[in-house]
Design brief:
Helices cover 37% and strands 18% of the residues. The chain has 268 residues and is α/β, with parallel strands linked by helices.
């Protein structure tokens, strides 16, 4: 099958260096924001497929991959959301899809609701819906920190299997290679903000068609959460990928693309 990867690039936006991987180069633009410890390269297999239909950009969020990092950066949700909006503007994206997974979905939501991202369609993939006074995000910070430190010391993919037992050898190898680029402070801040920053107030501000993709086996978003979000954003399109855990395309790649493609009205 023909590859759709074009190139990587560094873009100055919102006052920092932001690194993107570009796939396809034709069709409507799609800007994809990965999660808390997912450099852009780990989503390349998704970018390859999206690139068949969309002019796809997969982003290294600040403090991850090849984007700007360091102790002095602000790793709060609003800073990352401002990054996304500024990046779309710097790339000249119009009539584009803004998609995000997990932390990236929270960034996409905040960018659209409060930072003028101006996307034509929004796809939120299993965002943590924890927040003040709500049940905590069902994950352990140590899972992230321990794996980052292991990768920083130097390890192979086999060592990552304890953290991601269902992943393929190729996926584990890629994680072992790139996880050290995830700044521990950035990850700690984002994880804390899952509990400290309530995204529910952002949903009523959405005016564009919006997808909420739910991982059926993850427990991140419950049916009660779906009901609450539907009251806040009645037009939202909620689609469940029943047999997938939180890392949906790793668990059920076909189900992920079917849900996203169904919302966007394309065959992926």
């Amino acid at each position: 099958m023909t590859r759709t990867f074009l190139h990587g690039a560094n873009v100055r936006a919102n006052g920092i260096r932001q690194h993107v991987l570009r796939f396809g180069g034709r069709g409507r633009p799609l800007l994809l924001l990965p999660g808390i410890t997912s450099p852009a390269i780990t989503w390349a297999f998704v970018g390859e497929r999206l690139g068949r239909v969309f002019d796809t950009y997969v982003v290294d969020i600040r403090g991850r991959g090849l984007s700007e990092s360091g102790d002095a950066l602000d790793y709060g949700l609003d800073a990352m959301a401002a990054d996304a909006a500024a990046l779309a503007e710097a790339l000249g994206l119009r009539n584009y899809v803004l998609a995000g997974h997990s932390m990236g979905a929270r960034i996409a939501l905040r960018a659209q609701a409060r930072h003028g991202a101006g996307a034509a369609q929004l796809a939120l993939v299993d965002p943590p819906v924890s927040g003040p006074g709500r049940r905590p995000y069902p994950a352990n910070l140590a899972w992230y920190v321990d794996s980052i430190r292991l990768a920083a010391a130097g390890c192979d993919g086999a060592a990552m299997r304890a953290f991601c037992p269902s992943w393929s050898e190729e996926q584990l190898g890629l994680r072992a290679e790139w996880l050290h680029t995830c700044h521990e402070g950035a990850v700690r801040t984002a994880f804390a903000d899952f509990q400290n920053d309530d995204i529910h107030a952002d949903f009523p501000a959405l005016a564009c068609p919006t997808l909420l993709m739910v991982a059926g086996r993850a427990g991140v978003i419950t049916p009660a959460d779906e009901d609450e979000i539907r009251t806040l954003c009645p037009a939202i399109d909620i689609r469940r990928v029943a047999d997938a855990g939180h890392m949906i395309p790793w668990d059920d790649e076909a189900g992920f693309h079917a849900a996203l493609g169904g919302f966007l009205g394309v065959q992926l």
